[in-house]
Amino acid sequence: MKDLRRYLVLKYVQYLVLSSSNAISTFLGLLGSLYTIIILQSAKVSSKSTAVLISSLAKADILVSVSVVSEMVVWTFDVSISSTAFTSALLQNLLTANVHISCLLLSCVAFEAYLITFFPTESRHLRTVKNATLTSRVIWILVTAECTLFQTDDLLKASSTSAPNRSPCVLLFHFSSMAAALLKSLSYFLGILLRIVNVYIYYKIFFSMSNR
């Protein structure tokens, strides 16, 4: 459990403290996720709701791995890509999806820690493996839909640039562009809100434990 706590601290710093990820934090995050996945396979780790959320958090770094490996292959072997704009947008959207999934799951872990600290008995029926699994799936589905919308918008932008007078989907282009812009704004403000909420939760937990 100490290793899992250290992993959560690493992830909080990576996604909720640092304004943007860098090579060092990304590399440490990938190593931590790989180690965490191995740990969670052990029979010594009980199957609890927190473990389910942490497992989903670690698996979210698969998106980062795909992006990093793809860029390394292109750079190392000088691979020519037929649709550079599409691939570049896809890799960036995968990184964005990883950040959003991780922030939401870390907030779920923080909320669960809040319930355990202040409402251990009353919240027991909420802190179940079934609910944690359902929450993780809903987060993955929502962020996947978001990533799909961003990718569609990038694809339509590239198509309209290459053939602006031939695009048969002008209305679709404007709709996706407006929806993507709105969603990016909402994601930005949600990210700020999650940072504030997480700080408040751990502030309350810290002083509660200190008083005890």
The arrangement of helices and strands along the chain is HHHHHHH
Q: How would you sum up the major sheet? A: none
Q: Uncertain runs with pLDDT below 50, 5 residues or more?
A: none
Strand proportion, as a percent range, falls in under 5%
Overall SS class: mainly alpha
Mean pLDDT: 85
Total DSSP helices: 7
Shape: globular
What is the first-to-last residue Cα distance? 22 Å
Q: Mind telling me the C-alpha Rg?
A: 20 Å
Helix content: over 70%
Using DSSP, what is the number of strands?
Answer: 0
Main location: membrane
Domain G-protein coupled receptors family 1 profile: 32-212
Transmembrane segments: 12-40, 97-119, 131-151, 171-203
Membrane topology: Multi-pass membrane protein
Note down, in words, how this protein is organized.
The structure is a single chain. The chain is an all-alpha fold. It has helices spanning 2-17, 23-40, 49-59, 61-77, 84-118, 129-162, 170-211. Helix 3 (49-59) packs antiparallel against helix 5, helix 3 runs parallel beside helix 6 (129-162) and helix 5 runs antiparallel to helix 6. The longest helix is centred in the C-terminal third of the chain and has 42 residues, at 170-211. The two termini are 22 Å apart. The model has no long low-confidence stretch (mean pLDDT 85). It is a multi-pass membrane protein. Keywords: G-protein coupled receptor, Glycoprotein, Membrane, Receptor, Transducer, Transmembrane, Transmembrane helix. InterPro entries: GPCR_Rhodpsn, GPCR_Rhodpsn_7TM. Pfam families: 7tm_1. It is found in: Membrane.
